[in-house]
Amino acid sequence: MAMLKQLLQASLIALSILPAPGLAADSADSAEGELRKVDRNARRVIVAHGDWDKGGMHAMTMAMNVEKDVDLAKLQKGDKVRFEVTRQGGDWVITRITLKR
Ligand SMILES: [Cu+2]
Q: Most buried among 11, 42, 95, 100, using CB within 10 Å?
């Protein structure tokens, strides 16, 4: 029993040393684009974006999910925007979006 306890303590210590997953700075990226569609209910937009180096993408039109704390109320089709994205699983998710004036 004592050995099991030691083993458990050892693995807890090992866990606490590991860095938090999913927060690597190089997973965040920003790009500019024009909104082609804003679906507030589904929290999804279609963006025609420019070249996007870290994402490894050239200019294209694509759909992206939008994180729940991003305000979509004032955004509409045709708006030129600057946005920040992060990779979550296999998807790009917008974490911040601002109008480009
Ligand atoms: Cu793209």
A: 95
- The residues facing 49 across adjacent strands are 33, 60
User: For residue 21, how far is its CA from the centre of ligand 1 (angstroms)?
Assistant: 24
Q: Is the pLDDT of residue 69 over 70?
A: yes
**Ligand 1 mean position to 79 CA, how many Å?**
17
Handedness of CA 18, 23, 26, 27 (dihedral sign): positive
pTM of this structure: 0.70
If you measure from the C-alpha of residue 73 to the centroid of ligand 1, how many angstroms do you get, rounded to a whole number? 23
Tokens standing for residue 36: 């082609």
